[in-house]
Please model this.
Amino acid sequence: MGYLQRAQELYEQMVRDRRFLHQHPEVGMDLPETTGYVMERLAQMGYEPRRLGQGVTAQTQGPEGGKVFLLRADMDALPMREESGLPFASQRDCAHTCGHDMHTAMLLGAAQMLKEREAELKGTVKFMFQPGEEVLQGAKTMVEAGILENPPVDAAMGAHMIPGIPAGVGGYATGVVSASSDHLVIRIEGKGGHGAHPQAAVDPINIGAHIHLALQELISRETDPEETVVLTFGKFLGGEAANIIPSSVLLEGTLRTFNEGLRARLLERIQTVCACTAEAFQGKACLLVLSSTCALQMDKETVESVACGWKEEGLPMFFREARMSGSEDFSEVAAQVPSAFFVVGGGTAEDGCGVSLHHPKIRFREEALMAGAAAYAAGAAKWLERHSGDAV
Ligand SMILES: [Zn+2]
Ligand SMILES: [Zn+2]
Model:
């Protein structure tokens, strides 16, 4: 029996898993109920799951050892109220509006299928259920905790739901597929005083305005026009009254690029421009990178191997050139080992699934769980088969 066929049999269980997770969303790095549920489900399948960092890992090994392929799903929700109108909608002040409940349920389905076919596996499949994708800390923390070691991981694969595409239709790409993201905080210190006596004060609002303009010039005057870069400051906080010069202001923004070299150079230049501009006006500015993740880079050979498994299963997975506009912290894994990533359609506007990720009314068609689970499992099994003759 193929993976897709078996996934069809497991559909109702995957829906139960998904709905439990959907009704019990948790945000950030600490997901006690979610990780508890995942551990329990994996144990029921015959795994020996363990906590790693604040996530969960488990593995299944074929009879003859071999290489190690990692499958990753994220499990965290978003701090927002759900307005989907679904009978199993979250009643909490957080909700699974990015579909991570779907990812976790799919990977549990894949884990069950791979365990059932353990005797055929040409190596080891390791599972990574991570917290904190939305805060861009989960993958980094699990990498630091050793998810890629013991046994060492040779290649990896992640996935994400996308709305607006027919349920279960998938896509994949090679090269850089999503942007890096750096959450920047710039604190500017001046010297407060009376608005009528600016000469006795150091106005941080003036410094902030100059810093904001100067930073935009880094894009227009120092960056190759062929590159895609965004530098947006969505928060500029300071001051209480019209006639008082405040002592400090705060700017918060985000830097996005598809090029790691450019990202490093811009972060350095932002630091310099902030410090020097503030100094020119007799103040001080410091830059803090609150959270960050690198661009997501796909490895051609890994993508070809897993795509070969999808083709054999008859899964509707299409090669797409498009880059994802958002960021994805699976990039922290992909920066360490050759990786692939796929997206799964969650239904079209006609299905009532037309709104974007992070929208309070988002819905996914649950049939997508079958294709997602089969894509995870068939991709991993095929990659191991194709690399079973390689030196370990
Ligand atoms: Zn998201
Ligand atoms: Zn997401």
About this structure: The CA atoms of residues 64 and 122 lie 7 Å apart. Residues 98, 100, 133, 160 surround zinc ion (ligand 2) (CB under 6 Å). The two ends are 29 Å apart (CA to CA).
